[in-house]
Design brief:
The complex is a heterodimer of chains A (429) and B (387). Chain A is α+β, with helices and mostly antiparallel strands and 429 residues long. Chain A has 15 helices and 17 strands. Chain B is α/β, with parallel strands linked by helices and 387 residues long. Helix content of chain B is 52%, strand content 7%. Chain B is built from 18 helices and seven strands. The relative contact order of chain B is 0.12. Classes of the chains: A alpha+beta (429), B alpha/beta (387). The complex binds flavin-adenine dinucleotide and iron/sulfur cluster (2 copies).
């Protein structure tokens, strides 16, 4: 019997939810990104199998098979990330955590305990019923998962007040080839934002806050420096800068009549704030940052995480580089800003490659201004060494827990042809 | 099998397919919630379509089946990040698949039955009006009661209640009797457009011949088909379509709503929850009239978690009940559980197909309460209470 036949037999015997169907495997081999043809041909690969585990026992079995057959394991939440994190770059077992979506809220201790597949907004609805609320969540909350956001890392709603997801975790439970581990404190850095390259997250404990009234209001700003100054003066739960052009695009695709100027959308818990109808509409629409894709039909996105102090200089350079049709959204955390540039484009046309080049240029400008790409994932793994402060430590940790590089290979830690090509592309850019 | 559309159809669906942001907000899809595999989710289907349209994917028979595991309920459309008109897209894609590969077996059977007996149930055509009470006086009114196939053959109590309500309020109405034929909804929903067009043409000519001006339906599917599909298809076929289309709930609210609200001495007691039929709610925006009527009967209206625009499908539509009975009953079971959780005595709907399927799902789920009734039956109940 061929090795792969034996593997298939064993997988079918062990797991009730499995698919070897070619198109299903294809469907589970993408994220939200659409790469230009040439890069796609190198980055794109198809899962050998998709497994939907129901419990930690099955997750351990997946890792046992991975080791026995030297087959990579690619964890997958809702696949709403866009850096290739869920792409089975070297084939392998896509582990879809959607069936591990149990969660529980201890309303006395104000702690959430969740399996990785639990969806943020399902949690938030339950928490709200108990008079509690998540402190932070991504704007993809209607579908993105606890495991996915922790493994991806990042900032979102609430980050101005509470920081990124990494600052809002009490403990996680991880499974790797050595067994099950409980992780908290300093050690979290080996897992949060590491895209499952060091272990599979199977549980998380996350502190909640009391549910409070959110008041959304708009501060019209003259420019980005003005926005940064306004932020220094206010205690805000959330702060988002929306560029004039982003507002224009929203009006075009939504038929809205938003003011077409740079604005700072602020959300605070201050009961004395006046109700602002436009701000409330924009706030309600926070889950739809990609609405402007309608303008495309494609969109090229570049995200740069930059210290707030460096934002004005980066932003003015950015404005000179981006095409006139592009819109910018900036999400603020305590000390950083995530600058999201969205370029409406069309993947069927030549300009699509050009727009991707622009996106790379923006990342370069960001790095020059003490920033870094929001994530390196698969597509920008060649930059990890440069932009991750603890890279050497992370790399030696990875080698220790995953010597065969089976845990989501190619992500964060460069591997194979793609990083070389991307490095070349970067030089050309 | 390669399914690659060409020309206008290709253009029409390509834009919608490309614009998907893959955000997965459409994970709320009832069929996906039951099956759990993305080939059934809206996002997965769009990804699959993209591959196929670009010539990089091949749709095998498994995938064709997965594609039809969709009740066309439209829930996905309400959450879509980029406002893709998904109901339309699913139907267009189905048409393309059917044109090149033929319908699924059960859908073909439905079409054969319509071809022979003008109803999808394989029932004899000359029994279509068997539900009609003997001695009931019909008029040559320009207002037609279009009973539809399900109320004529499977949920006759709805047709009966309707004509009794009309009689009670002295409303004159016309009825086509054995000349009534299927409205074509099932054919359209299952991608069998060409055949549907023939049915539609025949119906329109008949309605004109009979001097009909207003069509009243008790079936949400007929209502959607007459009010959305007929005008569009008639335009394409170069036919005039100038009829007022009303669902029974709209008609009664207009003609006798006040009478029910104020003219009844006795009121009904208990709690009712209302299931928005997808074709009446999300597809055509009728949400309040049925609720107003329920309240007018004296029943306390309690809402399920999913209601109005965010209502949850009964599981029967889009040819799912016919082809994937198990899936449809599981979706129906979820809806029944939601109704049960409200503590309501009655689960009221406004569509014979929903009623039939919800009753079936309730039997399968083994749950006693609530009693599933159509809105026409509730109205008749209060009329009867008043003697
Ligand atoms: C509309 C929209 C809005 C967004 N808004 C935000 C935002 O506000 N802030 C933000 O940071 N991002 C945002 N994103 C990006 C993305 O949604 C987030 O990173 C999200 O939290 C990812 O969650 P997911 O469940 O989709 O994870 P996936 O995309 O499935 O996975 C993300 C990474 O985590 C790994 N992974 C998944 N599950 C596990 C696990 N159990 N164990 C180990 N590794 C795992 C995957 O391999 C992958 O590398 C947005 C995306 C969209 C489409
Ligand atoms: S129409 Fe309903 S069943 Fe069909 S894909 Fe959308 S949500 Fe699912
Ligand atoms: S919600 Fe709309 S944009 Fe998002 S994945 Fe579903 S179909 Fe695509």
């Amino acid at each position: 019997m061929e090795v792969m036949d034996k593997f298939e037999m064993e997988v079918r015997r062990l797991f009730p939810y499995v698919s070897f169907h070619p198109l299903e495997r294809e469907i589970y081999s993408h994220d939200i990104s659409v790469l230009p043809g040439y890069i796609d041909s190198i980055a794109h690969s198809i899962a050998d199998v998709v497994i939907q585990p129901e419990n930690t026992f099955q997750v351990k079995e997946i890792l046992r098979l991975s080791k026995e057959y030297s087959i990579p394991v690619i964890p997958r939440g809702s696949a709403t990330s866009g850096y290739g994190g869920v792409i089975p770059y070297k084939g392998g077992i896509v582990v879809d955590f959607s069936r591990m979506d149990w969660f529980e809220i201890d309303d006395e201790k104000k702690i959430l305990t969740a399996e990785p597949g639990a969806v943020w907004w399902d949690i938030q609805k339950k928490a709200n019923e108990l008079g509690l609320s998540l402190r932070v969540y991504p704007t993809s909350a209607p579908s993105s998962t606890v495991g996915g956001w922790i493994a991806h890392g990042g900032i979102g709603v609430g980050s101005r007040m509470f920081g990124g997801i990494e600052e809002n975790i009490e403990e996680i439970k991880v499974i790797d080839f050595e067994g099950t581990k409980r992780i908290s404190g300093e050690e979290l850095k080996f897992y949060v934002g590491m895209q499952g390259t060091t272990g599979l997250l199977v549980k998380a404990k996350i502190p909640l806050m009391d549910l409070r009234n959110e008041k959304a209001f708009i501060v019209p700003v003259e420019d980005i420096s003005h926005a940064v100054n306004v932020l220094r003066l206010k205690t805000l739960y959330t702060a988002v800068f929306l560029s004039k052009n982003y507002m224009k695009l929203l009006n075009e695709v939504r038929g809205e009549d938003y003011p077409e100027k740079d604005i700072l959308l602020c959300v605070s818990f201050d009961e004395n704030m006046e109700r602002d109808e436009v701000a409330e509409r924009l706030w309600e629409d926070r889950f739809f940052p990609m609405r402007i894709k309608k303008k495309g039909p494609s969109i090229v996105i570049s995200e740069v995480l930059i210290p707030v102090d460096s934002l004005p200089s980066f932003y003015s350079e950015l404005m000179m580089k981006i095409p006139p049709g592009a819109g910018v959204q900036i999400y603020f955390s305590r000390n950083h800003a995530n600058v999201i540039t969205m370029i409406p484009s069309d993947e069927r046309e030549k300009r699509y490659t050009k727009d991707w080049k622009t996106a790379f240029k923006i990342v370069k400008i960001g790095i020059k201004n003490s920033g870094k790409p929001y994530s390196t994932g698969l597509y920008l793994s060649h930059l990890s060494k440069k932009v991750l402060p603890d890279y050497m430590e992370l790399e030696s940790f990875k080698k220790r827990v995953d010597p065969e590089n089976l845990l989501n290979p190619g992500k964060i830690f460069p591997s194979g042809k793609l990083p070389r090509i991307m490095k070349l592309a970067e030089i050309v850019v | 099998m390669r399914v690659i559309p060409t020309g206008r159809e290709l253009e029409e669906i390509t834009e919608d397919v490309l614009v998907c942001a893959y955000c997965n907000y459409c994970r709320i899809c009832p069929a996906f919630r039951i099956e759990g595999w993305e080939s059934i989710s809206p996002r997965g289907k769009l990804y699959m379509l993209k591959k196929i349209l670009s010539g990089k994917g091949v749709m095998d028979s498994n995938m064709v089946k997965d594609f039809f595991k969709c009740t066309t309920c439209g829930f996905c459309e309400t959450v879509c990040q980029v406002n893709i008109p998904l109901i339309n897209l699913w139907e267009k894609a189905r048409r393309i698949i059917v044109d090149s590969k033929g319908p699924l077996p059960s859908h073909k059977k439905i079409a054969n039955s319509i071809g022979v007996n003008m109803n999808p149930y394989g029932e004899e055509r000359n029994l279509r009006d068997a539900w009609l009470p003997q001695g009931l006086k019909l008029s040559g009114s320009s207002t037609l009661y279009f009973a539809g196939c399900t109320a004529s053959f499977r949920a006759k109590e709805i047709a009966l209640s309707t004509v009794e309500i009309f009689s009670h309020f002295g409303i004159e109405f016309n009825y086509l009797g054995r000349d009534e034929i299927c409205c074509g909804s099932t054919l359209l929903r299952t991608g069998q457009r060409k055949f549907a067009e023939k049915i539609i043409e025949r119906n329109v000519r008949m309605l004109e011949r009979r001097g009909i001006e207003s069509i009243v339906t008790t079936c949400a599917g007929c209502y959607r088909t007459f009010s959305i599909d007929y005008p569009e298809i008639c335009r394409e076929l170069g036919l005039d379509f100038d009829f007022e289309i009303l669902h029974l709930t709209q008609f009664i609210e207009r003609e006798a709503g006040r009478n029910i609200k104020e003219g009844m001495r006795a009121k009904l007691e208990g709690k009712a929850t209302y299931h928005d039929p997808c074709h009446l709610g999300r597809h055509t925006g009728v949400y309040e009239e049925p609720r107003n009527l329920i309240k007018a009967t004296g029943l306390e209206l309690v809402e399920m978690t999913h209601n109005r625009n965010e209502s949850f499908c009964c599981g029967a539509g889009g040819g799912v009940r016919a082809q994937f009975r198990d899936l449809s009953l599981k979706i129906g079971g979820m809806r029944i559980m939601e109704a049960f959780e409200t503590g309501a005595d009655y689960l009221v709907s406004a569509c014979p197909f929903c009623k039939m399927h919800l009753c079936h799902s309730k039997r399968v789920a083994g749950i006693e309460k609530p009693e599933v009734l159509d809105i026409s039956e509730i109205i008749l109940k209060v009329i009867n209470e008043n003697g």
